[in-house]
Amino acid sequence: MSGAWTLARGLLKNPLGALGLGLTLLVVLGGLLAPLIAPYDPLGQDILARLSGPSPRHWLGTDQFGRDVLSRILYGIRASLSVAGLSVIIALLIGGFLGVSAAYYGGLYDRLVMRVMDVFLAFPIILLAIGIIAMLGPNQWNTALAIGIVYTPIFARLVRGPTLVLRESEYVQAAQALGASTLRVMWRHLLPNLASVILVQSTLSLSTAILVEASLSFLGLGTQPPTPSLGLMLSEGRAYLTLSPWTSVFSGLAILVASLGFNLLGDVLRDALDPRLKGR
Amino acid sequence: MLTYILRRFLDLVLVLFGVSVLVFLMIRLIPGDAVQIMLGANTEITPDRLQALREKLGLNKPLPVQYWDWLTGVLRGDLGQSVWTGAPIRDEILARLPLTLELTALSLILGVILSIPIGILTAYWRNSTGEYLVRLAAIAGVTVPSFWLGTLFIYLSFRLWPTFPTIGYVPLTQDPVGHFSRLLFPILALSLPLLAGLSRLLRSTLLDILNQDYIRTARAKGLSERIVLYKHALRNALIPLVTVVGIQAGYLFGGAIVVEQVFALPGMGRLIVGAINERNYPLVQGSILLVTAGFVFINLLVDLAYAYLDPRVEYA
Amino acid sequence: MRRMGWLFLAILIGSLAGAQNPIRGGTLQIAVDSSPAGLDPHVATAFATFVVIGNIYEGLTEIDEGLRVRPALAESWKVSSDGLTYTFKLRSGVTFHNGQAFDAKDVLATFNRVRDPKTGSPIASRFNLVKEVRANGPLEVVFELSQPFSPFLSELAGLSIVPAEYIASGGDLQRRAVGTGPFQLKEWVPDTYILLERNSKYYRQGRPYLDALKFNIVPDAATRQIGISSGTYHFLPNIDPSLAVTLKNAPGVKLYESQDLSYSLLGMNVTRKPFDNPKVREALNYAVDRKALVQAVYFGNGVPGGPLSPVLKGWASSVSAFPCYNTNPQKARELLRQAGYPNGVDFTILTLGSVKTVVDAAQVLQAQLAPAGFRAKIEILELGKFVQEWRNSNFDAFASLNGGSVDPDGYLFRTFSTGGSTNVFKYSDPRVDQLLNQGRTATSADTRRKIYAELQVKLACQGPIAHLVYGTLFSAARENVQGFKPIPTRSLLYLRETWLAR
Questions:
Q1: Distance from CA of A180 to the nearest CA of B (A)
Q2: pLDDT for C251-306, tens place per residue?
Q3: Residue to test with chain C: of A62, A242, A247, most C Cβ within 10 A
Q4: Chain A contact set for C250 (CB, 8 A)
Q5: Which is the most buried residue in A110, C283, C342, C473, by most CB within 10 A?
Q6: Across C136-285, where does the E strand assignment appear?
């Protein structure tokens, strides 16, 4: 655990890392606390107040139905992060399992799993996501599932390498010689080593998942109205740019901040954990 | 080297086979009676029509037979006919593919070109405020959805320079200037997100190289820093970029789908999205297979090129 | 000196007249959001298709901007006193775009093709009352009806005449077009544009003024909006009210307005709970606040309406005749309770995702219905899927945009008669059927008016459709577009009168 503290301190020393951490915390807190701090019901319509700019009553203005933009953005962050978070968890669990087991057991199983991963990786991301959502129907949770499936091969490939190396390493050989069970070996030796790459990739994937969700919402395949989602707000707001750009501006900003936060975090983490760049 | 190439080629074939199965199943697993949907949006549905279309597409036959028919057709170069226009799918795709290819290729090239100075600067100014700012800007480019960038460009261009044509498509042969001016913003919107990844890779490779023996030797010989950088470091640093090209091409296609909608460009992206909505089975299968095959092929070329260029890679 | 004065006056008048004179030439750049899948006028159902083929094909009659029937390919007609025989004198000297001459045999061939079940034409049932068609020489056609059918002349406007020899030889009408209209198909690049060029042999002298119409396919609304503001496009036909609002103050852009025959609606499946109970349907009408919908969805540009569009003056009853149009959520709750739903009802609204007005309306409706006990879930479907569910009556309720018709019979009959071609609600009421049949066969306008008045009251509050709003129909054009007149049917007929000023 002390490793985590040194890591955090190292992050904060780097101004980009501090920024990334700060933005991420801001966004995560916003999303978590949305039900508590949102001033209005995100679905509450007030037609007379529609398309207005920032004002004392509505800090970030209102959208085309008079719904409070601030509340919708808070709930939208909550929705976007949930989708992104869920998709990364899915990819991590399934991909992680596949990658580790493939490396550990090797042989035909390994070749087969990796081929299947290659097939999925061959597809351009959005195309695969569109296909999966077309099969399952467009809504938040299917979007998370689709993105999760799309990211699975990335995690599988990611963990396979280190696992292969570790399998041949002395610790593991010794532990196995001493009769330790496979599971125990993986838990005690593998996971700590994989933790860093998984952490880096997860933050980066979170960053891109938010964007993929936004693009899918633009195509009408992500979150469905009237549920607030940053991507949907951004896409719908474009129609009213000349009248009242606030919905687009603020939701775009929210996407930017969320994605940027995670990306910076991942970027700095990657540098911090990359042994080659240490000590320079 | 030859065995390496052959093995990779075999991999490619296997992957394509898997892709074809996946594509075939995927479109058929989309709920709803496909034939009804194919007809329904545009004409009246009669039982005769439904039956005729079903037979024409061979949807009565068992799945494996349908797959085999389709696959053998593809290998012969016949991708089938579009349900609607009746035109051969190969022609429909060939009419749209060049534009998407052009978009993707030009965006890639622009991305690489723009990321070189960024990579150099961030490597050179390591750990300074300047580096942080530039990196921040590059990363910001990747955190904005491309449809937003696209609309923003169109809007700003309209405000600042109203006569500049930004929307629609004009063939190259008809009007080269008009053709490229309309591609400027789409390419920009697509290439900006690339900068973050490419420049970061360049930066770390450069840093790697700059610390190596032969660089130290060059410095010791008294060569100016600039020559060290350009002549020795940069050339070698560009090689790993090649690997990223393959992966980025995949991302670019996804971006192209969205950008084509915003800028009203008739490319593969719009073709595929429309075909999925219409449940135009033959068109979806044919076009997705083609696009994916294209990327798999590109990745193969990239791997081979990298293996050729980098003397350190072993063909284990 | 006096002579100079007259000369000066003459020049002045001449130049003023010249300012109004149409200029020939130019290509009108039109932007639309989707392309037609095919151009066959006898099987088309999508708005996107009609917008294009309306310039290529013509019928015996046409509908003008006041919804009056005017001669088109038929020069004149006579109706027998019993209303059963219509004799049309056809225009002479008309040629199709492929050079073949137009005469009576083409009318017969067209009619037979539409009525042929193998064609599967959606307009076939509109001519059910035609017993026989025959030609009396090359320029005269006679239609014999089995019963008087007042809407006949207006329905004929929708019968696009195609050449007999062309279809007899198996000519393709989906990818090719051969009509008599002011423009002919020159080029169709899928997903990109459809180019129609001037028919130089068009029978209306001097028309059209434009050299060509280019329908650019631009799926994104924001792009279309900027496109017309920047002058890339000249004309955006039949746009959403939200798009109209953003263009209202755009420099260089003007808006054409007309009332719409089309309307937004909530349709209910009367074979499914809870909508099998007419009290529930009435309750829903009480729960809806149509005036608020006009503000919220149409930005104030529209009116609440019943089964008939307010543009059909003389036919459409005022909404004050429908008690359930007085918004009253408490009454709605009370009716639900009486119907046996004291705790309200839950249901799903299938929403047509391809029309922004409908998506917006569904969201506003959802919010309006909730306090009255109608808890709705919105499910947005793209066009193909929506049509499938709609056809198979696989819905609790749906939100959509429907087209009305010029004569009240057209729309009412196919929607509300038992087994009507668009009666997907499975609605069936003997009194309604009786009234509908009387309405279409009555010959006195007064009798018909009374019949349709009764029908509207019956259908408005307890029918399967909650008619919502008839929006203002907007089209946007650059300032230099002259001569166009919008028509409530969404037809772009007057593009033949349109010209581009410098």
A1: 32
A2: 899 999 998 889 999 999 999 988 999 999 999 999 999 999 999 899 999 999 98
A3: A242
A4: 242
A5: C283
A6: 140-145, 183-189, 193-198, 212-217, 235-239, 253-259, 263-268
